[in-house]
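Quick one, tokens below. Sequence please?
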């Protein structure tokens, strides 16, 4: 007789019990979903956005372990207060940061104002860097942490025929910043990765999802023939947030139905 094979525990590495996470842009859409998923995996989640009433509703829905904090990511004092509040309310720990807050508005490059371009880059890239920098403080001190940047397929390929130069530029910056921070902090225990969603419904893309011509464009050009459902990002999020990805850093994971593989 041979000894029975050991039972493999393939679920525990994805758990987040006892860990503390921040999710920005958590008042709606994908950010709200990300917060609920991390909470369901056992984390205490600090949810941040400008619309505090929505954050409070989310906290009430989840029941416990959700801390709402009003925050405008373009205001440095708000970012500093967000991290300080997290450490104060959650036992001095910060284990996961999901940089989800973002902005994009299609318009031709030749008519996009310089002020608009700068505002998109400020929200999507500059604020992401500053909050990552602030969150890295406690993470580096504890020699562990996971930062997850929400990039976009438009950081990997052009968006044409949709015209959004500032969005593409900012998300391309997020992709390469993810590589750089992942390399700088990897030896110190802090992993930095990104998710690049394809076409998913959100407040920002609501008009597109309500337009049949736009949906036909997605169906005809996406290898899987459809847009994504928000639940189809859950696995990527938990993989990167948890110990399931302890040897992954500097990576951008497209979740796009094959869009960038064409």
């Amino acid at each position: 007789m041979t000894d029975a094979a050991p039972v493999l525990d393939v679920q525990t590495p994805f758990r987040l019990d006892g860990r503390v996470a921040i999710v920005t842009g958590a008042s709606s859409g994908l950010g709200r979903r990300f917060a609920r998923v991390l909470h369901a995996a056992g984390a205490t989640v600090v949810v941040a956005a400008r619309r505090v009433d929505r954050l409070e509703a989310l906290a009430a829905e989840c029941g416990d372990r959700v801390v709402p904090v009003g925050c405008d990511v373009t205001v440095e004092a708000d970012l500093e207060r967000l991290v300080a509040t997290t450490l104060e309310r959650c036992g001095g720990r910060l284990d996961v940061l999901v940089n989800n807050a973002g902005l994009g508005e299609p318009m031709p490059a030749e008519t996009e104002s310089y002020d608009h371009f700068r505002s998109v880059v400020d929200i999507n890239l500059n604020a992401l860097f500053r909050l990552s920098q602030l969150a890295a403080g406690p993470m580096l001190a504890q020699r562990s942490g996971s930062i997850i940047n929400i990039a976009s397929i438009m950081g990997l390929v052009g968006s044409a025929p949709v015209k959004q130069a500032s969005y593409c530029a900012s998300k391309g910056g997020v992709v390469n910043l993810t590589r750089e921070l992942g390399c700088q902090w990897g030896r110190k225990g802090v992993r930095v990765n990104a998710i690049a969603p394809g076409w998913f419904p959100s407040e920002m893309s609501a008009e597109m999802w309500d337009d049949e011509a736009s949906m036909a464009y997605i169906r005809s050009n996406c290898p899987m023939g459809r847009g994504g459902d928000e639940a189809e990002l859950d696995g990527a999020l938990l993989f990167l947030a948890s110990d399931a990805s302890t040897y992954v850093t500097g990576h951008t994971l497209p979740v796009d139905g094959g869009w960038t593989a064409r």
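The chain has a mean pLDDT of 95. The chain has one domain: 16-255.
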